[in-house]
Amino acid sequence: MHLKLNISNVQSNLTYNDIETEYQPIDNGSIVTCGKDSTIIKDKSHAELSINEFAEKIQDSTVKLESVEINICNNVKKQNRRDIFNSLLKVFQAKSSKLHVSKCILGDLFAQEILLLLPFFQAGEFETIELSNNESMVGQLNEISKLEQWKKAKILNAANGKFEIPIENLFHFEKFTISLTSFSKEDSKKIKDRLYEMEHFGDGCFIFPKTNIIEIARVFDSNFYLGESALFDCEVNYKCFIVEITERFFKIRKG
């Protein structure tokens, strides 16, 4: 089962087991709609009501969740966002045990918010981390990559948004896609130098703004001089890796 919480400046939505509940503000309260049924609740904000319902679901031991998704839209005003996130954090702090799910999806969260939430998920239990953000809020992932939850996950999907991280902190994943603020010749060298360490790695993709393909490609072939893309086969410790490079992405997969 999937539990999804979306909070924006104008409304909140909670989806559980494909059933969506919508929370909208009205004067002195909120209107809660699920299917054809609507209820007016006084003196409660739409964010507060949705978080309370979210709390009930993750506190219920009979609810077996496969994935949890949390999105706090970047249009939420700063003070409101602080209050909303603190309320959400208290929900996790009140839980007697860590959350056992196979996938964690966090959207439009600041790096510090991710850093505070991930420890409440059981390390080694969830296989997939999905992160996304608005491009105006670059995700600094260096501290997050030190968490056990990060180190023990198998798949990372961070294709939507912009992130910064030392790329060597990605190679424990079996599969990853990440959108970076930049990609350099030095990054290309790091990948080549670490190929022999990639025991469990299978497939990786770096997405980045337009860059100099010649500098990046020459790390793998010093004779490369021209072209919109490059394709190389690399053999390390009897393992074959296929490298594809363009001016906007770098893909590597085990052959």
Beta-strand residue percentage: 35-45%
- Mean pLDDT, to the nearest integer, reads 92
Secondary structure tally: strands: 15
Write down the Rg.
21 Å
| Ends distance | 34 Å
Q: Helicity level, as a percent range?
A: 10-25%
Poorly predicted parts: none
Number of helices, counting only DSSP H or I runs of 4 residues or more: 6
Main pleated sheet: 15 strands, mixed
Order of helices and strands: EEEEEHEHEHEEHEEHEHEEE
Structural class: alpha/beta
- Shape designation: elongated
Describe this structure in words.
With 255 residues, this protein is α/β, with parallel strands linked by helices. It has a domain at 182-255. The protein is built from 6 helices and 15 strands. The chain has a 15-stranded mixed beta sheet that branches. A hairpin with a 2-residue loop joins strand 3 and strand 4 (29-34). Helix 1 (46-59) runs parallel beside helix 2. The longest helix has 17 residues, at 78-94. The radius of gyration is 21 Å and the shape is elongated. The mean pLDDT is 92.
Spell out the key features of this protein.
255 residues; 15-stranded mixed β-sheet; elongated
Quick structural gist:
The protein is of the alpha/beta class and 255 residues long. It is built from 6 helices and 15 strands.
